[in-house]
From TrEMBL:
This is CPXM1 carboxypeptidase. Belongs to the peptidase M14 family. The gene is Cpxm1. One of its GO terms (molecular function) is metallocarboxypeptidase activity. It comes from Nyctibius grandis. Keywords: Carboxypeptidase, Hydrolase, Metal-binding, Metalloprotease, Protease, Zinc.
Amino acid sequence: QGSELSGWAMGRWTYEGIDLNHNFADLNTALWDAEDNDLVPHEFPNHYIPIPEYYTFANATVAPETRAVIDWMQRYPFVLSANLHGGELVVTYPFDMTRTYWKAQELTPPADDGVFRWLATVYAPSNLAMASEERRLCHYDDFTRFGNIINGANWHTVPGS
């Protein structure tokens, strides 16, 4: 039916009206500011960026589901995660937010871009729905020409993803 008609928004917003797909703290800007000021890695380690203090305040607009994920991440540190949700048949890889804040799309690769591209390239053809010749388009985007993978920010910027 196409992403607009296939229920992609079902379950995306909480009862309180919070969009779970965009509710995480923006850690990209803190990293990029530190990089621009030559603070990485000695004064600002890039392997673990703490959740900003303002984001943990009781009155912050943070969904209980997001708080639960943050608590889980702090109890069980991990080095790789995946974000899966319905709608589009494409694998996006970091970063999801453009480095140039006013751009809607911009190739914004992380330092370990090759690893993320490799993981996306391995996953996409093994997903039968993505690999199908009969697959539907994403809006008007045909990701098959990119092997069904794209840098998230080069598709559309998502701060707090």
